[in-house]
Amino acid sequence: MTAITTAGTPGVNRFTRSQLLRTARLFATDPDLEREVDLDATERSWHRLDATDHLEIWLIRWPVGSSTGWHDHLQSEGAFLTVKGDLAEQSWSGNAAHDRYLWEGEGRSFGPHHIHNVTNLGDRPALSVHVYSPALRGMTRYALLDTTLRQTSVEKAGEQW
């Protein structure tokens, strides 16, 4: 994979969104993937599969009904792929939420500052692979109050997860 330099951001190497999604697909084919997370966990759990300054890859296990809450990934672009189960993504643009469903084997990519909430709405636990470039430095958390999304906090990588 070839990293590209983002125009206007000297020294920042990023992978294209299609490269991020292809990387998620590649990691999703690992037959031993499920061994990396606790399949009996009652809360959402995650395991970092690999990381450099320019690329970070996570495996997330989703019990039925679990959710991320509204958040973005600061400056990182990303992609995720549903390996097992079914996930729903609500993304925020303008002044409204937009729904998308990612069935087993489906994925999507997104740009920096993409605000979304991902939930397992299925009837069984789900598993997904998430890829970010550059590596995550943190996440902004949001709350939906009435019909307005408001920033509530910023989590720094390594401090809260």
TrEMBL record:
Keywords: Dioxygenase, Iron, Metal-binding, Oxidoreductase. GO terms for molecular function: iron ion binding; oxidoreductase activity, acting on single donors with incorporation of molecular oxygen, incorporation of two atoms of oxygen. Pfam families: CDO_I. InterPro entries: CDO_1, RmlC-like_jellyroll, RmlC_Cupin_sf. Fe cation binds at residues 71, 73, 116. Signal peptide: none annotated. Belongs to the cysteine dioxygenase family. This is Cysteine dioxygenase. It comes from Pedococcus bigeumensis.
